[in-house]
Amino acid sequence: MEKKKIKIFDTTLRDGEQVPGCKLNTQKKLKIAKKLELLGVDVIEAGFPISSPGDYYSVQEISKSISEPIICALSRALEKDIEIAGDSLKYAKKSRIHTGIGTSDCHIRYKFNSTREKIMERAILSVRYAKKFVEDVEFYAEDAGRTDNIFLAKICEYVIKNGATVINIPDTTGYCLPEEYGEKIRFLMENVHGIHKIELSTHCHNDLGLATANSLSGIMNGAKQVECTINGIGERAGNTSLEEIVMIINQNPNLNLFTNIKTKLIFQTSDLVSKCTGMKVQANKAIVGINAFSHSSGIHQDGILKKRETYESINPKDVGSHDFSIVLTARSGRAALAYRYQKLGYFLNKNSLELVYSIFLNYADKKKEIVDKELEIILKEANLEKDKLFHHENDHSIVEKNKLNVV
Ligand code: KIV
Ligand code: ZN
Hints:
Elements: E1 4-5, E2 7-10, H1 26-39, E3 43-47, H2 53-65, E4 70-76, H3 79-88, E5 95-102, H4 105-111, H5 116-130, E6 136-142, H6 149-161, E7 166-171, H7 178-191, E8 199-204, H8 211-220, E9 225-228, H9 242-251, E10 257-258, H10 266-277, E11 294-295, H11 298-306, E12 325-326, H12 334-343, H13 350-366, H14 372-382, H15 384-387, H16 397-404
Parallel strand pairs: 1-10, 2-3, 2-9, 3-4, 4-5, 5-6, 6-7, 7-8, 8-9, 11-12
Helix pairs in contact: 1-2, 1-10, 2-3, 5-6, 6-7, 7-8, 11-12, 13-14
Bound molecules: 3-methyl-2-oxobutanoic acid (KIV) and zinc ion (ZN).
């Protein structure tokens, strides 16, 4: 069966940038947009142009300098928003307006003090108006996660009739369970007239840590586009992280899906976004955290040194990361210690290792992590020169001797 393509809609520069303390200027936005183009994303949501002159300018500059991905600008379902979004995109080679409105009863009642009928009318008018500026119009049903499915299906049907090319089903508050979100997408796929003319898109927030699981459930039930951000940054607990959803698709051939992402550029893109936004990546973040390929317990270290696959399901090289690292703690074993000494050029034989390991444990019990400098100190303390306990048959013994002045 032929693999189906899942489009990657990156919203790092819009939803991602909505994080407190993460304002990006045009220069930084451009730098990230260029990297996203190299990474192979299909759509770059470049900003929300009505929100500020700076954001308008950023969308315009990105439109001028990016060729391959579609450049998308966000708007509310308001004529002025849509006009400004359309104008900011005038230099884009491929442009899209992303317009929409809250569709849950909670949003309709408390945000808009309105009715379902009036919201439906605004949805239709906004899509029609956006079509005056661009051919490609994506409609978002904000808070679709908590929107009644029958009403959501009706809105979808009407916006399709009025020209929407993509419909975004955001789980704005990260409310849904994966099964529930998947069922919502399936319900729309099965009940909306004209749904096969357009593409459904997932846009899942991470309030319960389910953003990636929900996006996956969405694409397994018919969505063709995933909205996501690098490092999962975004409002509150963030969005679906690009690296997670892309690697899930990559690692699971049974899904029969593919994306255009050049996975070897993931790590450097993550690093660039982290540096530009000042948002540190949590150490245990999947795929791009500094601990994602670090091993510290003796059992794992022993396994990984025998065969990487024993404790890693992803090859760090596939995401452009450094090779696995062996972190030395009081939980580390002899194999890990010997490996780290080898990296420093010391090849310890069995007796040497035994002695050095007992000294190492004394140090490790007092410290979180033992680093190279301390390994050298431990070796000196073991006083191996006198005992000549190195593995002399090994070619590297020369290096050892030179290093320790053992002659
Ligand atoms: O989370 C959300 O609902 C959004 C929309 C504006 C697309 O970001
Ligand atoms: Zn969002």
